[in-house]
């Protein structure tokens, strides 16, 4: 299936099964804002729990925080967001569509990479076992030509971004023959800077009101609380502060569903270290974060690091964890070595000393920071993408009987157990409810008695429920039920009194945490 079709299916699946709805859909929606439905909120909460526990529960030197969304406006001067949180935008005069100039160029770079990947795939098929990929990459003329084009474009692009050279960005778009995907023309306006922060007024009277911002990242809430937490928690370096919360960005190009939203949620860790040790911790957090992703079991080949050529104004090393979405490898998480930029800047703007006294060396200094920052919503999309599976159950018979199943890690599934009485009579519903009452304190159960068992299984498959139990007449005699496993569709007979322990162990977040 074409990758774009898969993505369209995912979006409609998320809506049909109560995962994600467009915001205020009743009024035709609000661009790039989404609501999470009955199943979506459960999956989202489980993702957050997996992250939070992996940070705060498993690391005794990491503690949590929940800072407010509104912050003193000077925060955003100190952080650089008022002056530098801009995206370069460009409009196409014919389609009237607006784009991010850097994204147009990145898409062009990705096209060169795709061309190379296609050549490699073709050659691998042709040469079979004897194929030497490295040799092919080093010697094939078409690959080499595309690699050269990629490198030249990338070097020019990185320089233009680093120099904030907007005229050069436009020139690159023209030189590369990048056309508007809607109008097909290169009738572009000049490239302009656009600040991504949303602002509003705080205070009731026009004279007394002051302009404040909706935070564009959760990180600054941590930095301004560094001293509070360090002092009250008597924290010693290295230590970390973890936070999950909403962030807001007035994204120019809002597309790809919940990949790029205007209101979204971040899970951020700021890890404070001694100056000079930051790159060591940067490397170890890279490794630990990748392990966190891989523990979900979606396949190593779908993840990669992408080291930044263009470093943000505050960073001395940066990488992204990228996942292979249907629209290509894209960032899900950023890992940045932020130096002492933030704390030093808040010290300067607030006029208050923000330092750490090291009892061993008897010195005071501003700690350096390593940050890991991941979007909850983007992680949600990553997981749904990886879990979405279509299977033809009658393939061998040459027929088509499709089942859609979300192969979610059981610990993340919105519903862990579906409790299904075979019929609505003979006391089966009552028995089913009784079983459910013994389980509902430990994990999320769903009771369903409508439609045939087969259809009920399919509905549970579509939301990723790992286990279904059927209560039938035999249950009334010997207190056993049929348990059906989502991925294999295998069924077995088990005693009711063994259910709780067996299922609890398999659906617990601990199953993931123990892999870290
Ligand atoms: P991008 O380059 O995609 O705009 P970024 O580099 O600006 O992202 P960061 O500022 O590093 O992103 O934010 C950390 C994480 O927050 C990202 O890896 C992503 O998962 C998430 N994130 C950032 N912007 C958005 C958004 N508009 N919608 C959803 N998630 C987002």
Name its key features.
Herpes Virus-1; 516 residues; 3 domains; binds adenosine-5'-triphosphate; BirA Bifunctional Protein, domain 2; alpha+beta; five-stranded mixed beta sheet; seven-stranded mixed beta sheet
Description:
By secondary structure, the protein is of the alpha+beta class. The protein has 3 domains: 1-83 and 212-392, BirA Bifunctional Protein, domain 2, CATH 3.30.930.10; 87-193, Herpes Virus-1, CATH 3.30.40.230; 406-513, Anticodon-binding domain (Rossmann fold, 3-Layer(aba) Sandwich). It contains 18 helices and 23 strands. The protein has a 7-stranded mixed beta sheet with strand order 3-9-10-16-13-12-11. The chain has a 5-stranded mixed beta sheet with strand order 20-19-21-22-23, with helices on both faces. It has a 3-stranded antiparallel beta sheet with strand order 5-4-6. A hairpin with a 6-residue loop joins strand 4 (86-91) and strand 5 (98-100). Helix 2 packs across helix 13 and helix 5 (101-127) packs parallel to helix 8. The chain is globular and about 75 Å long. The two termini are 34 Å apart. The mean pLDDT is 93. Adenosine-5'-triphosphate binds next to strand 10, strand 13, strand 16 and helix 13.
Total count of domains: 3
Query: For the record, what is the CATH homologous superfamily label of the largest domain?
Result: Bira Bifunctional Protein, Domain 2
Helix/strand/pairing category: alpha+beta
Count of β-strands = 23
User: Reading side by side through the largest sheet, how are the strands ordered?
Assistant: 3-9-10-16-13-12-11
The mean pLDDT is 93
Radius of gyration: 26 Å
Parts with pLDDT < 50 across at least 5 consecutive residues: none
CATH class of the largest domain: Alpha Beta
Question: The biggest beta sheet, please?
Answer: 7 strands, mixed
Judging by the overall fold, what is the CATH architecture of the largest domain? Answer: 2-Layer Sandwich
Helical content stands at 25-40%
N→C terminal distance:
34 Å
List of distinct ligands in this structure: adenosine-5'-triphosphate
């Amino acid at each position: 299936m074409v990758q774009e079709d898969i993505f369209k299916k995912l979006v409609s699946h998320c809506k049909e099964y109560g995962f994600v709805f467009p915001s205020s859909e009743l009024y035709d929606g609000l661009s790039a804002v989404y609501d999470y439905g009955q199943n979506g909120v459960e999956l989202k909460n489980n993702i957050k729990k997996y992250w939070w526990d992996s940070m705060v529960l498993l690391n005794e030197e990491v503690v949590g925080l929940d800072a407010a969304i509104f912050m003193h406006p000077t925060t955003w001067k100190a952080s650089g967001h008022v002056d530098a949180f801009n995206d370069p935008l460009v409009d196409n005069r014919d389609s009237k569509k607006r784009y991010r100039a850097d994204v147009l160029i990145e898409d062009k770079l990705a096209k060169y990479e795709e061309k190379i990947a296609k050549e490699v795939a073709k050659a691998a098929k042709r040469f079979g076992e004897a194929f030497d990929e490295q040799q092919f990459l080093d010697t094939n003329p078409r690959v080499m030509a595309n690699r050269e084009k990629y490198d030249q474009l990338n070097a020019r692009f990185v320089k233009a971004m680093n120099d904030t050279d907007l005229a050069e960005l436009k020139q690159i778009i023209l030189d590369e023959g990048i056309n508007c995907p809607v109008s097909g023309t290169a009738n572009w306006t000049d490239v302009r800077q656009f600040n991504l922060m949303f602002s509003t007024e705080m205070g009731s009277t026009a004279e007394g009101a002051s302009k404040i911002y909706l935070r564009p990242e959760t990180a600054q809430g941590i930095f301004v609380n560094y001293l509070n937490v360090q002092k009250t928690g008597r924290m010693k370096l290295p230590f970390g502060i973890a936070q999950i919360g909403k962030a807001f960005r007035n994204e120019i190009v809002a597309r790809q569903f919940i990949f790029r939203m205007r209101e979204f949620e971040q899970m951020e860790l700021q890890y404070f270290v001694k100056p000079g040790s930051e790159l060591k911790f940067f490397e170890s957090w890279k490794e630990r974060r990748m392990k966190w992703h891989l523990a979900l079991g979606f396949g190593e080949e779908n993840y990669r690091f992408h080291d930044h050529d263009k470093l943000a104004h505050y960073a001395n090393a940066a990488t992204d964890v990228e996942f292979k979405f249907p629209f290509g490898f894209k960032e899900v998480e950023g890992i940045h070595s932020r130096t002492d930029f933030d704390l030093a800047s808040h010290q300067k703007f607030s006029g208050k000393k923000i330092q750490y006294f090291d009892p061993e060396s008897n010195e005071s200094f501003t700690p350096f920071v390593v940050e890991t920052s991941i979007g909850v919503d983007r992680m949600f999309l990553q997981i749904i993408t990886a879990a979405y599976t279509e299977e033809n159950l009658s393939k061998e018979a040459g027929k088509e009987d499709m089942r859609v199943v979300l192969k979610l890690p059981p610990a993340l599934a919105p519903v862990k157990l579906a409790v299904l009485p075979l019929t609505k009579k003979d006391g089966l519903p009552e028995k089913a409810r009784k079983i459910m009452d013994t389980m509902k304190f430990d994990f999320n159960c769903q009771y369903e008695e409508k439609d045939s068992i087969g259809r009920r299984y399919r509905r549970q498959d579509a939301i990723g429920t790992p286990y279904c139990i059927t209560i039938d007449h035999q249950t009334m005699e010997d207190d056993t039920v049929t348990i059906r496993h989502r991925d294999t569709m295998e069924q077995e007979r088990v005693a009711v009194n063994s259910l709780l322990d067996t299922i609890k162990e398999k659906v617990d977040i601990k199953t993931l945490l123990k892999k870290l």
